[in-house]
FAD-binding oxidoreductase
Amino acid sequence: MPATPSDPGTSRTRSWWGWGYADAHPDDVECAAMGALLPGTLARPLPIPRVADLPIGRPGVLPPPSLAHLVTTDPETRAAHAMGKAYRDIIRSLRGRPGRIPDLVARPTDDQEVADLLDWAGGHGVAVIPFGGGSSVVGGVEYRGDAHRAVLSLDLTSMDRVLEVDATSRSARIQAGALGPVLEAQLRPHGLTLRHFPQSFEFSTLGGWLATRAGGHYATVHTHIDDFVQSLRVVTPAGAGTSWRLPASGAGPSPDRLFLGSEGALGVITEAWMRLQERPRYKASASVAFADFHPAVEAVRAIAQSDLAPANCRLLDAGEAALSGASHDGSAVLVLGFESATAPVEDRLATALELARSHGGSGEAPPADRDAPADAAVSAWRSAFLRMPYLRDGLARMGVVVDTFETAATWDRIPALIDAVRTEVGAAALKATGHAATINCRLTHVYPDGAAPYFTVAVAGRPGDEVAVWDDIKAAASDVLQRHRATITHHHAVGRDHRPGYDLQRPEPFALALRAAKDALDPHRILNPGVLID
Amino acid sequence: MPATPSDPGTSRTRSWWGWGYADAHPDDVECAAMGALLPGTLARPLPIPRVADLPIGRPGVLPPPSLAHLVTTDPETRAAHAMGKAYRDIIRSLRGRPGRIPDLVARPTDDQEVADLLDWAGGHGVAVIPFGGGSSVVGGVEYRGDAHRAVLSLDLTSMDRVLEVDATSRSARIQAGALGPVLEAQLRPHGLTLRHFPQSFEFSTLGGWLATRAGGHYATVHTHIDDFVQSLRVVTPAGAGTSWRLPASGAGPSPDRLFLGSEGALGVITEAWMRLQERPRYKASASVAFADFHPAVEAVRAIAQSDLAPANCRLLDAGEAALSGASHDGSAVLVLGFESATAPVEDRLATALELARSHGGSGEAPPADRDAPADAAVSAWRSAFLRMPYLRDGLARMGVVVDTFETAATWDRIPALIDAVRTEVGAAALKATGHAATINCRLTHVYPDGAAPYFTVAVAGRPGDEVAVWDDIKAAASDVLQRHRATITHHHAVGRDHRPGYDLQRPEPFALALRAAKDALDPHRILNPGVLID
């Protein structure tokens, strides 16, 4: 097994400590230039950490001979599986204080091997952390505490095949360890696509999307991966099972919906039949500028409450629009995109633009020419979107405390919620650092009854205390969300970082049911201990 | 409390033994005329049953004084709460052999009273059957067995208010006991609608829809009530809880999805925040005739796999089309309807008609005039649809074994599934009765990855043995569905009648979790014993 995982189909090396590909990281000069944009940052970037400097001990346990071929104790592999890719994880690596490094990393190749590993772990008090692309930003793939004898990271990426395609029903059976590009490459010859594009698309897996209820490409209608699930296969310590492939059913509570979002705490999702789509043939996009943010929110609400169903309907506030190059005059920008495999979409775009203009926006549809260059603001936003996590790591090296959090709430609460986040999170950041923070907001997903605001926070931290600074900021954010009854997470998941907020949000009868399910399916309490349930 | 429940807003009397309103039942002459259409039916209709003839004993238990004002022991009320409205229930009443008649019927008016009733029942070994409109066709609201000291029917229809409307977020907090017309009447002044119209609309409640994952009006996109739930309030024997009002969330497995479809076995749904819609302003409908059924299925698949999203997309086979008056020449008929509150829908209808014609259908869009009369086949189908359950009861009085069942499967299985149902259910009916059965099929809901076929079976039964005949037919149907991996129910629910099929369909890890949840939430095992879980 390679020491550092490479993506199939590429020869590029994944960073063990930072986002994405190592060769895509900003260099020292770029980091310094970014740092200069904020007051109080470091004079020089923190050095890129080295595995050799990490406190990696000998494994606390070794696998039995029958499983040894699936398991590695290689230090760099273990280091790459110690944490996810939140700012909190990046800075801990940069500061040489990573989370607990797993004793073992296993890469099973089929369900039986997953079951064998769970059996062995259950019998030996070994915690098992299911691991897909490792892109968690909520502490979802690290071990905390010391209740287990050892920790095994269960890396599913050797199970990455599209096993069957049913073109008639436009669906495919896909192994959970397939990264986004890996599964799309296998679907392309069939003219089909899953069309689920979270920001982490390149570095996250189908299984990770399912276990965390990931939000994808769509801004409206089917936004979460949940709706594209036809059937799930789950291996639990108490046995394995597969739900039937069904377009819909009313037979009892949905079995799949219990495992969607279970974050590896109830079982390991090993494969799924997923609903696919034809590739869109018709596309149209445009951007709309608004002098103020709140009227733009009203425009977005009007579009969300129509049945126009834009594929993209992202509202960037002035800071976010400037950062991504979508505007430079202090405007908020609404990025609209329509797609269809059936019929031209220019009429839908035109109706949406009309709604936006009637709320004070200014923007025109580009000429209806399929070869015309896309709207410049739309293109700028798209490139910046994919580059953002790399820039975040560069800023982290300059001593900037920088990360994102997201939520969702009904429309009646959105304006006050966004204002309160700016005020209260800003105050918390100022108190923790002495600097005024940059706080940007965008609406990423919209619904007839509400929206998902997404916030970016950046502020120079107290050198060496960055984790504590971020934890203070995040605690203030969670507190605002809780008081406004906005969800602790729209699509990043709960993991360990969101547990306090999640425990407040979850209704007590469901908590009782979930704990009972955990006891039944994971009696030795080895599966991803600490996420969702104690 | 009135002995026979009347719908608020009407003075019409509900039938205690048959579908809907007593005054809408076909009279003896109409029954005889219907009976004459099938060979082997009775010479005269079975008489309408009388409560006085029922074996109604004294209640096995009486409520404590503190709850007595919520409870009745009136015989007709108890009789009206003994069973649902399946054919199996109707014929048992007609033959004077009803299911177990509950000892008590309670009508709580708030959550505390529901909790008090559950507390008392738990302490006294009394089974509690949550009861909304009582329209279950799967044995969902009757008690079977003798493990409990007494049976309490918990009628929620006194909790029927729309408590709050949030027009900004287009949502409302609605009590679970509101019948369809009752809740729509309260939403109308706000210009909003839940727009969920199951066939039972007049005689079923929001709580019943939620507890059974009812299928509604829409043929595509959001077909089940599940997708319109923003938040649920549930009272369980282990405590009550309310999920947060959210347009979407990725915080753990969906709490609401565990209680949706739980059929009263995990708790009593007492209210919900529901997502509403504006009333549609634009409508267009048309029908398309097909000489053969299977090419019509392909046309429907093409429309379902487009993004046209028809509100109605029902395919009636020749028998179903003739029965409903939509065609009389042996054609299958596709009924298409489009609706929007945002924009005209003629283009979408035209594109759908084009797709249908390219698969061999013949049909034209009506002139684009909003005052034009709706397509005649569409109107005929709609009237017949609502009248059908009354006719079923009339046929039952003539000794006809007649009921429906429904399922869903992926497109690759649909043609063989429908053929197998016709063949094998037909053979079972012939074997059980000596007569060739009428078996009609329609597709009621369609998805990109599959469809929901709905079957009607009618055949003269063996007088006095009708229940056994129907059970034989239903067993054959369940067997075909199971072998074709088609769901035991798309929207009628599991209840007690579908338990064997459900037990085969449900994946074992979910079964373990569900049993554990039941133990945690209903430790005395009083809630709707026998549905979903033993």
User: Anything to note?
Assistant: Chain A has 15 helices and 18 strands. Residues 376-397 of chain A form the longest helix (22 residues). Chain A touches chain B through 98 residues (CB under 8 Å).
